[in-house]
Design goal:
alpha/beta; Spore Coat Polysaccharide Biosynthesis Protein SpsA, Chain A; 15 helices; 9% strand
Length: 397
């Protein structure tokens, strides 16, 4: 029997293929025959299928099968499969959907990237502009990409692709909250928070015509679950992850080295640019557009050619535990500007009028406070840079 095409690569990187499947019997046998031309290191998780899935898989003696009676969701199946792969001694697992949308030939793309980025979590980036891409898939992908960026500060072109490579030591044995489609978002975000490099690799994808398509994605229920998860992750990011990372930045040699480079490394960057980056970061950290500071600030910092590292550093003024203090200061500033006699920040009753007054004071005060703090930061940092950056700045055309 001829050795599968990529078997040597799979052995070299100690990797396997992991397939979660649910009621895809009509295409499963052909898909597995095609896949086994590339590798025999395959694990299938039969997620409570009610068709002939189990009988089809049992025809392939080389495949490790996990099967249970009740359908538990794709996330549960992936979690079970990742733990099984780690238990079998594999270091990496490449997940691939069983509906025939992914091409096994692209397995080599993931394995080849391991030379440059060992230990990374890789996501196959699909071409979402081709014919027959479902509207819900295109919208859902953009929705997911945005929230991944909010939660991690990292941009990804395709966060919903099921074609992925997982580093098992980093992800297999964590305790996760989700069991459905939203697991694929949770595992990416939490891997990124743990310091795992998350990157994209290009893959091909086949979308059949609507009448031929197999999908168990339920837009309303699954988008609701994904939205709840993202709300939860944003809270964790604001209350724990960002403060943790900021503290690490300020208490480590590498962090101070990063800050030093951001301030002094770009010799052709003027003091005005650096000071403006810091001032704008403070402004965006305070201005009352909570949850969207980076979504608005990063594109603007790029547009105006600011120092993005300094902008992000200064924007951390809004991290917990400073957030409540900024809210209180914003409300009190607003009441001062509006001439309110009562400067307290407690709402004495729950009337709509009282709520409106407090809201107007908060947003007005937050804006005024952001402008004042941003200008103060700009002037202070410019003065410090003026006296400390003694090297001559040469502006190249």
């Amino acid at each position: 029997m001829q050795m599968p095409l990529y078997e040597t690569l799979f052995e070299q990187y100690n990797a396997c293929v992991l397939i979660p499947t649910y009621n895809n019997a009509q295409v499963l046998e052909g898909f597995l025959k095609d896949l086994m031309n590339y590798t025999s290191r395959i694990i299938i998780v039969n997620d409570g299928s009610t068709d002939d899935t189990e009988d089809i898989v049992k025809q392939f003696s080389q495949i490790h099968l996990i099967s249970y009676k009740k359908n538990r969701g794709k996330g549960y199946a992936l979690r079970a499969g990742l733990q099984k792969a780690a238990g079998l001694g594999y270091e990496y697992a490449i997940t691939i959907d069983s509906d025939g949308q992914h091409y096994p030939a692209d397995l080599k793309v993931f394995l080849g990237q391991l030379n440059e980025t060992p230990g990374a979590l890789m996501v196959g980036a699909r071409n979402m502009n081709q014919e027959n891409v479902p509207g819900k898939s295109s919208f859902g992908n953009k929705f997911s990409n945005f929230w991944f960026w909010v939660n991690t500060g990292r941009s990804m072109p395709d966060t919903q692709s099921g074609y992925r490579l997982y580093p098992l030591k980093s992800v297999a044995h964590k305790t996760y909250f989700t069991t459905k489609y939203e697991f694929e978002i949770e595992v990416m975000v939490r891997a990124s928070w743990s310091g795992v490099k998350v990157l994209s690799v290009p893959v091909s994808v086949y979308y059949p015509k609507p009448e031929e398509r197999i999908s168990h994605f339920r837009p309303f229920k699954d988008f609701t679950r994904i939205s709840i998860l993202n709300t939860f992750l944003v809270l964790i990011a604001l209350l724990y992850v960002k403060p943790r990372d900021f503290i690490k930045l300020l208490t480590s040699k590498e962090g101070w080295r990063t800050i030093w480079k951001a301030v002094f490394f770009h010799p052709n960057e003027t003091n005005q640019t650096k000071a403006a980056s810091l001032g704008f970061g403070v402004f965006m950290g305070i201005v009352p557009v909570w949850g969207f500071q980076l979504a608005i600030g990063i594109p603007l910092s790029i547009l105006f050619r600011m120092n993005k590292a300094l902008f992000l550093l200064a924007a951390n003024i809004s991290i917990f535990p400073f957030t409540p203090l900024i809210w209180i200061a914003s409300l009190m500033t607003g009441k001062w500007v509006l001439g309110y006699k009562d400067w307290s920040f407690a709402i004495k009753d729950v009337s709509l009028q009282q709520f409106k007054e407090q809201g107007v004071a908060f947003f007005l005060g937050g804006t005024v406070l952001a402008i004042a703090a941003g200008l103060f930061t700009y002037l202070l940092s410019y003065s410090i840079l003026f006296f400390t950056r003694r090297k001559k700045i040469i502006i190249q055309p």
